[in-house]
Write a structure and sequence with these properties.
Shape: flat
Strand order of the largest sheet: 1-3-2
Helix content: 10-25%
Structural class: alpha+beta
Length: 51
């Protein structure tokens, strides 16, 4: 199983873009395993390969 760590900056506009990013990775065969909040707007998304 391989993992990918993606940095995400939500900015002051909120989190709607994060959902789109998660859906994009899911369409490419990855499952979201964990979300880590680093600061007010910065996040780490940890995905694992479904294959």
């Amino acid at each position: 199983m391989s993992y990918r760590v993606v940095e995400y900056d939500s900015g002051p506009g909120g989190l709607p873009g994060m959902e789109a990013l998660i859906n994009e990775w899911a369409a490419n065969g990855y499952r979201l395993d964990q979300v880590v909040r680093r600061s007010t707007y910065q996040w780490l998304l940890i995905f694992s390969s479904l294959s």
